[in-house]
Amino acid sequence: MSAAEQDDRAESIRMIRDSAAALAPPGGDLKRIRDLRFQDPGFDAGLFRQMGEMGWIGLRVPEALGGAGLGLGEMCALAEELGGALVPEPLIAASLSAQLLAAAGRHGALPVLLAGEVLVLTAWQERPDTLEAPGTPDAPRRFLPMASGADFFLVPVREGDRLALYELPAARCVPKVERTQDGGNLGSIVPNLVEGTKLSDDIGPMLADGLDEAALVTAAYLLGGMERAFGMTLDYLRTRQQFGRIIGTFQALQHRAANLNMQLALTRASIEAAAATLDAGAIGDARRAAVSRAKARAAEASLLVQRECIQLHGGIGYTDDYDVGLYLRKAMVMANQYGSATLHRRRFMATSPEVEE
Amino acid sequence: MDAIRIPPPAELDGLDDEQFRHVVRAFLHANYPQELRNPPKRLHWSENKPWYMTLAERGWLCPGWPKEHGGLGLSPGKQIILTEEYERYGVARTNDHGIVMLGPLVIKYGTEEQKRRFLPKILTGEHIWCQGYSEPNAGSDLAALRTEAVLDGDHYVVNGQKIWTTLAMDANWIFLLVRTDKNAKKQEGISFLLVDMKTPGITVRPIINLEMHDEFCETFFDNVRVPKENLVGQLNKGWDMAKALLGFERIFLGSPRQSGYALSRLKILAERMGCWEDAQFQDSYARLRLEFEDLKALYGTFVERLKRGQSLGPDVSMLKILQTELFQKITDCMLEIAGENAGLLEPMEGNRDLNIGGLYIQARPATIYGGSNEIQRNILSKNVLELPG
């Protein structure tokens, strides 16, 4: 990229961050988030529609198909802002579905999904902790985020050596839903394909790429939560007094804050490098290695940072009234989505070229 | 098991250790409600009352109290055996602040009148106690507490706020550390006061914690008038009394049981997730298992000291640090291998006591309560290693 192109890119990313502030004001309270917890569907359909109006659901969809045609740099910046505000509307899952619909021969619910009028979830997962979609026709599809608010499911199905894609109305395939620690839900469905419409004969490559992207964007969402919880913790260290001193003056605590700061810096560096790698058009192993590096780091570092933020707060951090715990609960749910740290470490070793002397 | 005769309470202390262990097992087998084994959350009075009353009726309620006051008069060694067997059986804690904290303090420092007035009502379950020590600005620095008691005629007038008053909503009495001299050095102006929760001016507000459970409360005191005969021990000596009470019970904060339970859950989870045989997992598990075995050995050396009648030094803090941090590491490992199941609110389908997220969250405050691990490390570095500063 030339210097001018780089400047344009930075400007585009800055604009996305600013636009995120419209729905998730920085420093805003988390009352909306709290009110939605442990309720169905766990998010606000009105706000999801606003996300559609802002062009976020189709951020990664080509402009010719009604999307914004922007890159992962922008998508990760947006997810980071949303993660900082714990926004529960399922943008990452919806974005994956939008990309699949855009890539399919028939676009199905794409226009209404891009407008945020319906929620379309991709029912690809047959077991925990995987990025593989075997497409077993009658296997239950599991761990669908915010499934209780879904209008359509996209079901990849193995047909010969390819994965076809079917669209199923949720009314014909009611999910079984379990609540999650962050107040959202995960659903499972048994796909009833006779009720479905086939949209594509060969969605496999797009699905693999889309899951990679979802893993990377999830890492960025986790980073946003880490930043915010760490910021709250620094504020606490700067104001809380015990033994007649501000506790942030204790060197033992200062060192721990410094350690967390390094984890944040590494996570950000890893995610931004991966986004740039993908935006530069990397394919195959190079692409997978970059994503896995970022997600492995984010999954592990986010839980470490969130745990330490609770500990550094002491008792108040263990109350539900205090916001820092909301970030731990979110990390518990999202750290393993689209692959755990273990899965991504292994995949990194399988796809990354060895370090040269 | 059923063949074992359970002797009357007064004879329990006379048994040898192995006999005693078998008697405890038989007692639990015969009396403990099956459905209350290993509860995922701290039980409220309404839930643990039947067990409390069973213990009360059988005379087993207060293992550490002297027999003359209605206790079992067990030696520290036997109390540890009892606790080990309770833990092994998954016995829930009762609302035990009267048994564990207040009773021993009244026995040691109370007047004869106070003993007659308060001890029997703990034994019958009529008085359920809670503890009012911590305050919003006096947590790790407990001696900085500011809830004030001012003498006005025959009463102390109490004003202030306590926090982390465990199960205060269940209690009808509270024991308080209060400031009675604002001019003295902070540890030397604190007194110990017993307060009837029905006294006007007391408000209890439950705090929902990360387990989404109302185990803790905030308790507010607004011109609460407490008869002055409810002061225990000498005026302004409350701090020393409360500290002296932190006796050998401190060892229980370091009991490896929680880690042992968590390890057993980790194994079940690993088998269920299909990674038990995995070499990488086996290495992680082996590390945790070895830490557990070494902690058990270390714990055993402290237990031996108690059984020989020695008192524990400040080095007991290391047990609490090691146990709580191991408990957390085990639940960290569970979260890592559980995939998307890590985020579920409820136990995994088909296994009622495999609640990954629940156990993970339950492990968090262990490094905060009972003297945070930061404070425990201060104790090790200052009082054991005698480092300067």
Automatic annotation (TrEMBL), chain A:
Residues 210-346 form the Acyl-CoA dehydrogenase/oxidase C-terminal domain. One of its GO terms (molecular function) is flavin adenine dinucleotide binding. The keyword Flavoprotein applies. Coiled coil: none annotated. Keywords: FAD, Flavoprotein, Oxidoreductase. InterPro entries: AcylCo_DH-like_C, AcylCo_DH/oxidase_C, AcylCoA_DH/ox_N, AcylCoA_DH/ox_N_sf, AcylCoA_DH/oxidase_NM_dom_sf. The keyword Flavoprotein applies. It comes from the Bacteria. This is Acyl-CoA dehydrogenase. It comes from Dankookia rubra. The lineage of its organism: Bacteria, Pseudomonadati, Pseudomonadota, Alphaproteobacteria, Acetobacterales.
From TrEMBL, chain B:
Its cofactor is FAD. Residues 236-384 form the Acyl-CoA dehydrogenase/oxidase C-terminal domain. Residues 130-224 form the Acyl-CoA oxidase/dehydrogenase middle domain. It comes from the Bacteria. Keywords: FAD, Flavoprotein, Oxidoreductase. The keyword Oxidoreductase applies. Pfam families: Acyl-CoA_dh_1, Acyl-CoA_dh_M, Acyl-CoA_dh_N. SUPFAM superfamilies: Acyl-CoA dehydrogenase C-terminal domain-like, Acyl-CoA dehydrogenase NM domain-like. The keyword Oxidoreductase applies. Residues 17-126 form the Acyl-CoA dehydrogenase/oxidase N-terminal domain. GO terms for molecular function: flavin adenine dinucleotide binding; oxidoreductase activity, acting on the CH-CH group of donors. GO terms for cellular component: plasma membrane. Belongs to the acyl-CoA dehydrogenase family. This is Acyl-CoA dehydrogenase. It comes from Dankookia rubra.
